[in-house]
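ok so I'm stuck.
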Amino acid sequence: MLFLQGYGVSTAYAAKIYHEYGKESIEKVKGNPYCLADDIWGIGFKTADSITSKMGYEKKMCQPMNE
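replied:
not stuck anymore, here's the structure
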């Protein structure tokens, strides 16, 4: 959960993420932070995009699919 909080994820959301993904939470989020918008109730695209940016992903990787 400390890993997630380092990117601005609240304790409550970090707990939801861990509940959903378990031990694979860090790998899942590192692999595709946008999965949070699909899998975690209350985390939308804007929040997932903010986390993605804080993780250092290139901006062109952060574009919504409909643009």
